Fold this protein.
Amino acid sequence: MTGRSGGLNETHDPALRSWVMSANAVDCDFPIQNLPFAMYRRSGAGTPFRCGVAIGDQVLDMTSAVACGVFGGAAQTPALATTGTSLNALMALDAAAWSALRRALSGALRVDAPAQSTLQACLVPQAAVEYALPARIGDYTDFYTSIHHAANVGRLFRPDHPLLPNYKWIPIGYHGRASTIAVSGAAFPRPQGQIMDAGNDVPALVPTRRLDFELEVGIFIGTGNAPGQPIAMDEAEQHVFGLCLLNDWSARDIQAWEYQPLGPFLAKNFATTISPWVVTLEALAPYRQPFTRAPDAPTPLPYLDSAANRGGGALDLQLQVLLQTAGMRAQQQMPVALAQTSYRHAYWTMAQMVTHHTVNGCSLQPGDLFGSGTLSGPTPAQAGALIELTQGGRQPVMLPNGETRAYLEDGDRVTMRGWCEKPGAARIGFGECVGTVLPARL
Ligand code: MN
């Protein structure tokens, strides 16, 4: 297991049941073993967003729960940190505090808990709420940790040498933009940009014709580090608060023209959508897996290697991306799955991202967000972006209603889902990350 947050304890017991009956349904994303955090309010209320914990189909309002006095001892400080206007104060604490709060929540929400009669009044149905971003995100960094994605995309541009020579040595990333990150449910206009069409020698300013999604995991940084102070591998996961789903929308034609020599810019920063619920690293402990690489892959440099990372640095988080076109919505047809994969196929782990990001002394702050990079698995059906699924747009995807998609059209709605399940552990889910493409604003 990786670090102290990686251990299993009573909160992971698959036999635990909650007095919130909906949490005990077999396919529920939010059983008592999950306990993710979000910022929410009653839909349309216009009141400030508050911290809530998901339990079954309900939200436990933390401000009310704290006022009821159910959090004492080591849970008191982290519980108080949830009563502000974002999760940053909670994230700024440490793994021991997050763990104490999880233990207290687990105790208060389980069957026969004395707190039941008090906390019953602190529940709000999820169906009646809307969400904000969970944190004030100071900085957003997008990585490129799926070797399958890197190779699939690289092959389209460089059939002879799809992977660049640095890939197996450095967790590649770029600094993204926090101002356009939105919570699930967001709609955004198709971006315009400079596009250089093949055969032309002058670019045009036009709406993108190659709008894509990227299936990613979002990683929220908790405890920060001081400038100049690198975070070593053995401490790295102590700085991770939790994970969400992330859609890093991309305009491939804008990207192709602008990305050299400094990397992605306007093709990436017009919209990023994340799921509202942040699943803590501790909740994911049963789903850690050994981090393995092909025998011919180089051993990482010592600063990116650790026994704990080799033993349990990977995470078996199932990820799925679904599409519902405007036409499908009009016919009341359900979204159709385009791909499914697991986070465990990533080439670089969360710990390696944190350590590499800080090796030069760069400081991370509570609420900073990492994107994992598009997560594609080893097979074509596990590709996390349309550019891979359609071979650069050359082989459009056929939808059940007869429509085809090379890239996203106006009105398309992309949904991402994530969950963990295996025998002997409680299934936990991430909920949904949904975003809709609107016509270009011209
Ligand atoms: Mn990305």
